[in-house]
Amino acid sequence: MVAYRTVMVGTDGSESSFSAVEGAARLAAACGAELVIACAYLPMRGPELALARDQLGAEAYQVVGSAPAEETLRTARDRARAQGAVDVRSIAVQDEPVTALVRTARECSADLLVVGNRGLRSLAGRILGSVPADIARKADLDVLIVHTT
Question: In 3-state terms, what secondary structure has residue 47?
C-alpha cells in the first residue's frame, strides 16, 4: 500500500464536511502525512453585500471577503487536531468548490483528496452533478469519498 504524504480535504463549514475533515485527519495521522484543509468561497457582491452591510453594520466584516472561510478553517483545524493530525495547514481559496479543490490539490502536491458524500445520492446531484462526483471525475490524484450523511 502506498503511504500518503499529503492528504487534502475540502470543507464548507457544514457538519457533513467536518466529518470528512475528521476522517482525513485520522488517515493523515496514521500515515504521518501533512493534512491540508481547503475551503472555497466566493465573496459577496452587489446587492447581497449592501444588504449585509445594512443589516450588520460594524459587524459586517464577519461575512465579507474570506472571513467566513477563515472561521470555517479554524473550526476544521481544531477538529483535525482532535483526531490526531499533527502537521495541519489550511487554505481559503476564492473560487467555485470543484475548481478550487482540484487546483489546490495540484498546487499542494497532494497524494489524496478527501471529500464528503453530501449531494452524491440526491436527485439534484444525479441530475446537476455534485461536488464529490465532479471531483472524482476531474482530479488527477486519488480521491476518497467519505460517507458523511
Answer: helix
Dist. CA 100–CA 97, nearest whole Å: 5
Reported as a single tens digit per residue, the pLDDT across 92-134 is: 998 888 999 999 999 999 999 999 886 544 433 344 347 888 8
Q: Which residues pair with 146 in a beta bridge?
A: 116
Helices and strands per DSSP (H, E), number in the chain: 6, 5
pTM above 0.70, yes or no: yes
The answer to whether 130 and 119 have CB atoms below 8 angstroms apart is: yes
Distance between CA atoms of residues 25 and 108, nearest Å: 16
- 40, 96 in Cβ contact below 8 A? yes
Q: Could you tell me if 11 and 38 are in contact, meaning their C-beta atoms sit under 8 angstroms apart? A: yes
